[in-house]
Amino acid sequence: MALSFDPQKLPVIGIDDHLPALTPAVLHGDALRQRFLTPPVWTPEIKTEGRFTERAPAHASVLIALVPRTEITVLLTQRTDHLTDHPGQISFPGGRVDPGDADAAATALREAHEEIGLEASFVDVLGALPTYTTGTGFIVTPVVALVRLGFAVQPEPCEVAEVFEVPLSFLMNPANHRRHSVELNGASRRFLSIPWDGLDEVGQPRRYFIWGATAAMLRNLYRFLAA
Questions:
Q1: Which of 38, 48, 176, 179 is the most buried (most CB within 10 A)?
Q2: CA-CA distance, 142 to 211, in Å (whole number)?
Q3: Full set of structural domains in the chain with CATH
Q4: Alpha helices in 8-61 (DSSP H)
Q5: Mean pLDDT per 10-residue run, the chain (227 residues)?
Q6: What is the DSSP string of 68-112?
Q7: 53, 59, 60, 61 alpha-carbon torsion, rounded to 10°
């Protein structure tokens, strides 16, 4: 569904630099694994968006794939512009639940393989965050996993324009989280963005504008790890 506004042109109404950034000790692979083994008592900050459509809700899963390089990074995709849902946006690999999927993790792994060619044998699922409901009616389970080095990606060109990685430390620093507001259908809607200045697949500087559901799920990951 095409947007009626450009989120990158909306003013920033707040930056959350009053919240602490997560330290490297918290973002280490072993610490992440332990956090999911013994999760804290916590509450997601953002659970749902205002609905944009009257479409019946559908369950989906996404894979928050953590890559243990010199520092841990998060694997993200740029969706192609012609897709029906969230065209051109930055997202995690993922999609709708199929009847044959055993659970949310199975959906996330299957979709990641279909979208970017990520083999499940390289993925170690740590656990899942609470569901997040998008304005387009998807009830999304974020599945968090560590990805063993040596994996390869092969984007499905009809769905994925680019695959890239962002340092987890950057995403888990609320000083990089921006708040925005927009009027839609007579109602004020608020959302987060986490713009990241990186290099594209040919090494050219580029701003990746992470926002909406992807930014919200990353914010919930921050709350989970910070609790």
A1: 176
A2: 16
A3: 7-226 (3.90.79.10)
A4: 29-37
A5: 74 96 96 97 92 82 97 93 62 96 98 97 98 93 98 93 96 97 79 94 91 96 98
A6: ESSSEEEEEEEEPTT-SSSTT-EE-SEEEPPTT--SHHHHHHHHH
A7: 130
